[in-house]
Amino acid sequence: ALVVTAGWWNLPTTLQWNVFWDLGRQQIRRHRPTPYRGDITLIRAAENPDHPDTWARMVTGRMRTVTVAADHHAMMRAPHVTATAAAVSAALYLTDNEGTPS
């Protein structure tokens, strides 16, 4: 019952984390991805065990891959977040100036 009302009321921190964890698990089980019709830039952590081609199956266009020398969580924290931000900026620049990220 708490998952249905997730985020509506403030709950004790541990309970709130558990509710959102359960909500996320439900969404993952229900989600059925479909291919994205376009080009993408995949910004991935170097320590990601998944091969980038895993994502290529979900794209009908071209895929440009940029690897950040970090793990999944560290790429969003200093000092690695600088490289992550640069990769995002470059992808946006390419999209704005070429109409495609690759």
TrEMBL record:
UniProt name for this protein: Putative non-ribosomal peptide synthetase
Species classification: Bacteria, Bacillati, Actinomycetota, Actinomycetes, Mycobacteriales
InterPro entries: AB_hydrolase_fold
Superkingdom: Bacteria
